């Protein structure tokens, strides 16, 4: 049977204990691994592997010894409880061994969990599971986790469901991170909130979210936004030594000042405008940017965007001969001095 994306999410959390098997396929190996771990844990429990109720069969072993799949699903376990035979990275070459095991499967046998890469609609392996009355097939795509999946991850991590705004922030974070990093962030949050009765807040997410790879870039942007002009030169030297590119710094500045401008344009004020940003701005960084938007004001922010645009055009000009990093540094100094004006 073929599982839709919505049905698959529910099935992974609560699989059919009486099914003969499940095929999980897709292009993203990390997403497939996470779903496979989830469904196997739901079938055999957290102690299943320790109790030898989980048998792993790499595709290479199945090709060398096709009868292994059938032998393992029929084998009797030493410990009582449901059993799983996991065939990893299956291909069309391992298909015949899996087909034979599915045909011979009977109630009480181990359930067959198979993972594979991207499979075409014409794949025999995929068709075998989709056409079976007792087995299931689920395709995993690059869609971000749904709200229900995030809530389940929170429950698994022992975190109480937060309020709507924090949940929205988590949803946005899940769209920025790959599935493995997002799950690790949730586990880190669970440890961070251990024995803390306070509800999960945006500052907690900011403390546990992966560190930005643009930390030094954020430093220079905050220096400009807070009009600390004397600090620009030394930090620009360090950024240049680290290999920062002038165009990247300018793009980052444009993004930063557009965010400030959008917040300043909000009729309810910069604080309300910042809370509507997507992707969201968390914790201390959010408070810092609100202060910057309030200090600059709409008029100066529009002037700042003009300076950045002019510098960008100068960098792209065919006749430009001045060093690009020098042009960007001069623009940053002009911006900082603009911010210092009253």
TrEMBL record:
Keywords: DNA replication, DNA-directed DNA polymerase, Nucleotidyltransferase, Transferase. InterPro entries: DNA_pol3_clamp-load_cplx_C, DNA_polIII_delta, P-loop_NTPase. It comes from the Bacteria. GO terms for cellular component: DNA polymerase III complex. It catalyses: DNA(n) + a 2'-deoxyribonucleoside 5'-triphosphate = DNA(n+1) + diphosphate. One of its GO terms (molecular function) is DNA binding. The keyword DNA damage does not apply. Its EC number is 2.7.7.7. One of its GO terms (biological process) is DNA-templated DNA replication. Belongs to the DNA polymerase HolA subunit family. This is DNA-directed DNA polymerase. It comes from Aliishimia ponticola. The lineage of its organism: Bacteria, Pseudomonadati, Pseudomonadota, Alphaproteobacteria, Rhodobacterales.
């Amino acid at each position: 049977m073929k599982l839709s994306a919505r049905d698959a999410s529910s099935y992974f959390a609560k699989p059919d204990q009486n099914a003969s098997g499940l095929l999980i396929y897709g292009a993203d190996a990390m997403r497939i691994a996470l779903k496979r771990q989830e469904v196997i844990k739901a079938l055999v429990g957290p102690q299943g592997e320790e109790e030898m109720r989980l048998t792993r069969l790499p595709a290479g072993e199945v090709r060398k010894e096709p009868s292994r799949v059938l032998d393992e699903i029929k084998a009797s376990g030493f410990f009582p409880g449901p059993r799983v035979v996991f065939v990893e990275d299956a291909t069309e070459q391992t298909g015949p061994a899996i087909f034979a095991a599915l045909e011979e499967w009977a109630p009480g046998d181990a359930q067959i969990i198979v993972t594979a890469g991207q499979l075409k609609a014409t794949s025999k392996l995929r068709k075998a599971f989709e056409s079976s009355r007792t087995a299931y097939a689920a395709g995993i795509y690059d869609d971000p986790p749904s709200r229900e999946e995030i809530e389940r991850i929170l429950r698994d991590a022992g975190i109480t469901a937060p309020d709507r705004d924090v949940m929205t922030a988590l949803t946005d974070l899940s769209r920025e991170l790959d599935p493995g990093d997002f799950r690790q962030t949730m586990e880190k949050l669970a440890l961070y909130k251990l024995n803390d009765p306070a509800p999960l807040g945006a500052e907690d997410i900011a403390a546990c979210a992966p560190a930005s790879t643009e930390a030094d870039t954020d430093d220079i942007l905050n220096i400009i936004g807070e009009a600390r002009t004397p600090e620009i030169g030394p930090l620009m030297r360090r950024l240049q030594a680290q290999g920062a590119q002038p165009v990247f710094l300018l793009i980052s500045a444009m993004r930063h000042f557009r965010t400030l401008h959008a917040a300043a344009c909000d009729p309810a004020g910069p604080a309300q405008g910042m809370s509507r940003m997507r992707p969201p701005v968390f914790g201390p960084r959010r408070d810092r940017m609100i202060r910057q938007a309030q200090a600059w004001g709409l008029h100066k922010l529009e002037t700042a965007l003009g300076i950045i645009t002019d510098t960008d055009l100068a960098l792209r000009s065919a006749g430009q001969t001045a060093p690009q990093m020098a042009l960007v540094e001069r623009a940053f100094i002009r911006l900082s001095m603009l911010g210092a004006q009253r």
